[in-house]
Amino acid sequence: MIPVTKPFLPPKEEYIELLEGIWERNWLTNNGPLVNELEIQLKKYLKVQHLLYLGNGTIALQIAIKALDLKGEIITTPFSYVATTSSIVWEGCKPVFVDIDQDSFNIDPSKIESAITSKTSAILATHCFGNPCAVEEIDLIAKKHSLKVIYDAAHCFGTQYKGESIFKWGDISTTSFHATKLFHTIEGGAVFTQDATLLKKMAYMRNFGHAGPEKFNGVGINGKNSEFHAAMGLIVLKNIEQILASRKTKSELYDHYLNKASVLKQIIQPGAFYNYSYYPVVFESEKILERVKENLEKSEVFPRRYFYPSLNSLSYVDMSETPISDSISSRILCLPLYHTLSEYEQTLICRKILRTLRYK
Ligand SMILES: *Cc1c(COP(=O)(O)O)cnc(C)c1O
Q1: Which residue segments constitute the domains of the chain, with CATH numbers given?
Q2: Disulfide-capable partner of 80 in 126, 232, 299, 356 (CB 3.0 to 4.6 Å)?
């Protein structure tokens, strides 16, 4: 069976070594030494000044929205994972969808201004599949209209833009360290900001608002993560260069085999150092996609329709017209991409795809 992804698992002994320390200290969660160490190492690796390690990428989005005190309407992308939209709704705001660009698959900055109303408080955009948004243009629009910017950078571990971590963009950037992500801590996530005051506010929010055992500083939630999760993160981080390099090699092998196929590829933003977090291909029609998927499944290969359906069709949001997102979302398939995927398996996958396309 070839799934769309398999989490990277480091050598078991290395994990067990860190568990010994947890048993010795008897300190399991609540900002323990391994959580601290992971935060320090992540800051060093990513070359960012501030970050907070959290329970998951969804609580990261919710804390970001809360910390910026967002109200009313939030302009967002319909082409992302459901958590991008559900977090907005969960925090009592209204998502307003702006269509995506057909090359980058990210929110189209030229369509943002016409969606701004007197109720708009922010833009929440996803760097889809790790491809940076048009961050400079979005920044200019936000400044002009006094809007806050949050980036859902869940796919962006290792992505850089103009030589710096993409996590530096936006008032707050969020990410996920879920097991299916390129860098993971089993469950986990983080928020990034360049603003020390905002960081402090989010640090209180992460821990119920505790400012000491008997004092509270504002309303908080449980956004913490544990020593066990941090331990996994520390070991996965040791292997990160190898993980990134192997995804690049595998993506290039797919490129090589599929270059004559009639499929469209996402176009990576110039100036980006890309992390090869996913391998999406867009077919000419949904019918062809379905046929490809069916044929792959017959051979026990399970790609995923990321992201389908387009989020503007969720039952709890207002109808809006985003034809490009609707179209791409109905024709896009993410091919298997993970550390232990073999060249032989990739050849098999590509042969199936090419054969299906030939007999379309
Ligand atoms: C994975 C993901 C999330 C949610 O992260 P969790 O850690 O699973 O809560 C949010 N947004 C996007 C774009 C994602 O891919």
Answers
A1: 12-99+107-238 (3.40.640.10), 240-358 (3.90.1150.10)
A2: 126
For residue 224, report the distance from its CA to the centre of ligand 1, in Å: 16
- Atom number in ligand 1 closest to CA 180: 1
pLDDT digits (tens, 9 = 90+) for 148-206: 999 999 999 999 999 999 999 999 999 999 999 999 999 999 999 999 999 999 999 99
Query: Model pTM?
Result: 0.97
CB 334 within 8 A of CB 280: yes
Residue 128 CA: nearest ligand 1 atom is 13
Task: Please give, one letter per residue, the 3-state secondary structure of the chain.
Answer: CEECCCCCCCCHHHHHHHHHHHHHHCCCCCCCHHHHHHHHHHHHHHCCCCCEEECCHHHHHHHHHHHCCCCCEEEECCCCCHHHHHHHHHCCCEEEECCECCCCCCECHHHCHHHCCCCEEEEEEECHHHCCCCHHHHHHHHHHCCCEEEEECCCCCCCEECCEEHHHCCCEEEEECCCCCCCCCCCCEEEECCCHHHHHHHHHHHECCECCCCCECCCCCECCCCHHHHHHHHHHHHCHHHHHHHHHHHHHHHHHHHCCCCCECCCCCCCEECCCCCCEEECCCHHHHHHHHHHHHHCCEECECCCCCCHHHCCCCCCCCCHHHHHHHHHEEECCCCCCCCHHHHHHHHHHHHHHHHCC
Residues touching ligand 1 (Cβ under 6 Å) are: 56-58, 80-81, 83-84, 126, 152, 154-155, 176, 178, 189
pLDDT at 225: 98
